[in-house]
Design goal:
With about 230 residues, the protein is α/β, with parallel strands linked by helices. Helix 1 packs parallel to helix 2 and helix 1 crosses helix 9.
């Protein structure tokens, strides 16, 4: 079993797109998959309860399938920082609770398991703990999604330094083009990617261009075309 924690340089860096794309790629190779989104805010009320679009995207790429509550045990309606959304709901997610929820799905030993964080590496889980503590507690290598826009290099390097300072291995990084203007000058764009590759000191698992919005399943398959699985010889 290979399991990784997926983080981003910031909110909307493209964590779900890359996570679902990697899971889709693994499925193409005939591998069993599991995508977890332990904490999610910005959820919609449905007949089945609160549902998060990102968690649903990971659920769709999980094979064999698992119940939504396994994929996303902590779901909150407000589209704000998860610890603040939880506070409004009168709930306090804790590291111990997240570890407990992760035990059963991780015990399934799928060929590829990806646990997607929320926001960036230092997003709080509660007043005392960060969500990244889950990766530390589970001793998971980390995949970093770099939102390619102005400021990406500094954001990526700082995040990489924080991951390593927490004692974890940066297993790879993926560039995701957020701002098309960032790639308007092709030579400059390639120089930016080269700088990221040189300074992050981890394998580049792909660079995802701007993709048309065609629904989560189609986006995952399209992203998979630009990705490589981590730790494959």
């Amino acid at each position: 079993m290979r399991a990784y924690f997926v983080t981003g340089t910031d909110t909307d860096a493209g964590k779900t797109l890359v996570t679902s794309g990697l899971l889709a790629l693994a499925r193409r190779h005939g591998l069993t998959t599991l995508g977890l989104k332990p904490v999610a805010s910005g959820c919609q009320e449905t007949a089945e309860g609160l549902r998060n679009a990102d968690a649903l995207a990971l659920e769709a790429q999980t094979r064999p399938a698992l119940p939504y509550a396994t994929i996303n045990p902590f779901a909150f309606a407000p589209a704000i920082a998860p610890h603040l959304a939880a506070r409004r709901a009168g709930v306090t997610p804790t590291l111990e609770a997240l570890v407990e929820h992760a035990r059963a799905p991780l015990a399934l030993a799928r060929d590829l398991t990806l646990i997607e964080g929320a926001g960036g590496w230092r997003v709080p889980l509660n007043d005392r703990e960060d969500l990244s503590a889950l990766a530390v507690r589970l001793a998971l290598p980390v995949i970093l999604v770099v939102g390619l826009r102005l400021g990406a290099i500094s954001h990526a390097r700082l995040t990489g330094e924080a991951i390593r300072a927490d004692g974890l291995r940066l297993a790879g990084w993926v560039g995701n083009l957020i701002d098309p203007g960032f790639a308007a000058d092709d030579a400059l764009y390639r120089d930016n990617l080269a700088t990221l590759a040189a300074t992050l000191d981890a394998p580049c698992l792909g660079v995802v261009p701007r993709l048309p919005s065609e629904g989560h399943a189609a986006l995952a398959e399209a992203a998979a075309d630009h990705l490589a699985l981590p730790d494959v010889d």
